[in-house]
Design goal:
five-stranded mixed sheet; alpha+beta; two-stranded antiparallel sheet
């Protein structure tokens, strides 16, 4: 028997009583959403497995035998109740449940530091003008006062190489002339967020699903009220709106990051107090080399675009 060490209130077990998936239910996640999340994380076809509620109180000891009937996932908009569930074959027999090896693309919290690149300044100004509010909370910007509001890249600048190999520039319809060759600084790759929402978005703690009416899901315990809201959309033309496929890509990464048994893969402490050496703090942190490379790539990639 194994359990995830991170804080969760929904646990999915296999027939051998090992936790294979899980998340924190804040109230908005339905079984139809779980069907999509399992399609992302479980490599078996969905017809080969089913989900059953564990009947033992507390932490189950024999989930493969002590469970209720299978739960219909497809089209089921009922909310998932916190607790333990077991994933078995469709007829209720123990089954090896292979979990994908795909990992979320690592990213750190990005900060809008002073940058002489006019493309980044144009990206910021265009996102501000289009959204004029935090698209997660709906908080409006006071005229001309953007302190605390940040223009966030949906696809991180630190992964310019993945942006190019994925040919994302071909999906950008924005006709602004000064975005750079890659178009990663298109307004379609940006949303305006309050600083705390930006941090949660960058850390895959929240994500926006464009296929679910742009609903916002928090994958962790949410004391800020993000979960279950819907992204605020402006009335700008479609070719200036956030690209649906970019939001869907970020959402997929959030599912991969949070649902698998080990939980968030890049849970870095981003709070570096004033006066501390940020280079030393980042380099000496968990997975410091990877984190340092991401920060450096975010700073340097605008120079080679």
């Amino acid at each position: 028997m194994s359990r995830a060490t991170i804080r969760r209130n929904v646990h999915f077990l296999d027939g051998e009583n090992n936790e294979i998936l899980g998340f924190w239910q804040n109230g908005s996640v339905s079984w139809s959403q779980i069907a999509e999340w399992m399609h992302i994380t479980i490599t078996l076809p969905s017809v080969q497995y089913a989900v059953f509620q564990c009947l033992e109180s507390g932490n189950p000891e024999n989930p493969a035998t002590n469970h209720g009937p299978s739960i219909n996932l497809s089209g089921n908009n009922n909310a998932v109740h916190p607790g333990y569930y077991v994933v078995l074959s469709a007829n209720g027999e123990p089954l090896d449940i292979p979990i994908t090896e795909e990992r979320a693309v690592p990213r750190s919290v990005s900060y809008n530091l002073s940058n002489p690149d006019p493309r980044i300044a144009a990206f910021r100004d265009r996102v501000r003008e289009r959204d004029n509010c935090c698209v997660v909370t709906g908080s409006r910007v006071a005229p001309g006062e953007y302190t605390g509001w940040e223009a966030a890249h949906i696809f991180p600048v630190a992964h310019l190489d993945l942006w190019r190999s994925g040919q994302w520039s071909q999906r950008i319809e924005d006709d602004f002339p000064d975005m750079g060759d890659s178009k990663i600084h298109s307004v379609q790759n940006g949303i305006l967020l309050l600083s705390h929402a930006h941090a949660w978005f960058d850390k895959y703690m929240i994500a926006i699903n464009p296929d679910d009416n742009f609903k916002i899901t928090s994958f962790v315990e949410d004391n800020l009220g993000f979960d279950g809201r819907y992204m605020v959309q402006s009335n700008y033309p479609q070719h200036y709106q956030p690209l649906r496929s970019l939001l869907k890509y970020h959402f997929r990464m959030a599912v991969l990051c949070n649902m698998k048994a080990r939980g968030p893969e890049y849970d870095w402490d981003e709070d570096i107090p004033p006066g501390m050496d940020p280079v030393a703090e980042i380099s000496n942190s968990k997975e410091g080399k990877l984190r340092f490379e991401l920060v450096m790539a975010e700073r340097l990639n605008p120079l080679v675009d």
